[in-house]
Amino acid sequence: MPIYEFKCNECSGNFEQLCRVDWEGEVKCPSCGAANLTKILSRFSSPGGAGGGCGSCASKNCGSCK
Q1: Which range of residues forms the domain containing residue 11?
Q2: How far apart are the first and last CA of the chain?
Q3: How many structural domains are present in the chain?
Q4: pTM above 0.70, yes or no
């Protein structure tokens, strides 16, 4: 099961949730309990990926990139 990132449309909180692909209606905000959520397009990094860099900086050219 993938981890999705959500934004609550009621309290504006952000949170991550491990859930099924067809999560609609099953996930609730841990802060306020609302089910009125928007799934956020999350960024991810992959070691040795095509873009290179570490994924922690916008330039992909920082001192921590390997």
Answers
A1: 3-40
A2: 29
A3: 1
A4: no
